Every structure is written in C-alpha cells, then in structure tokens.
Amino acid sequence: MRPGDKDTVNGLRRLLNEGDPIGVADEVPDAYDCMLAPLRGPLLGVPGLADGIGDIRARTVVRLRRRATAAAG
C-alpha cells in the first residue's frame, strides 16, 4: 500500500457512507466497499485529491439537505 492509500480509502468509505444512496450504511458499514477500488484508482496520485474529495463531500451534503428540505416542506 502506498502512502496515503489508507487515508484515501477511509475518506472514500466515509463519503459513501455519509451519502448512503441506498440507505444501508447504518446496518452494513462496508456496503459500499465494492465501489472503493473503481473510485480510488483514478484518484490516487492526482494533485489536490483532498480538495477534490472535500468538494464532492460538500456538494453531496448540499444535495442531501435540499432533498430533506423538499421532503419536509
């Protein structure tokens, strides 16, 4: 494993679980692990990886908040 791989995998896992597109992360913590390799491969070694993951996370949070607000309203 290269330096940063573990942090990248953990960050991607956390991002996927927070987004939880199929609603199972609370019951099955590794439900999205099958998506880690396809996502991780292109991202490793890319300058600004942390910024990219942060941007994806921020956009996901905004989208989920909008959905929750629309559903509540």
Number of domains: 1
Rg, alpha carbons: 14 Å
**Order of H and E elements:** HHH
Tally the helices: what do you get?
A: 3
Low-confidence stretches: none
Number of DSSP strand runs:
0
Shape descriptor reads flat
Would you summarize the structure shown here?
By secondary structure, the chain is mainly alpha-helical.
Explain what you see:
This protein has 3 helices and no strands. With 73 residues, the chain is an all-alpha fold. It has one domain. The longest helix is centred in the last third of the chain and has 24 residues, at 49-72. The chain starts with a helix and ends with a helix. 4% of the residues are buried.
Q: Which characteristics define this entry?
A:
single chain
Task: Map the helices and strands.
Elements: H1 5-19, H2 36-43, H3 49-72
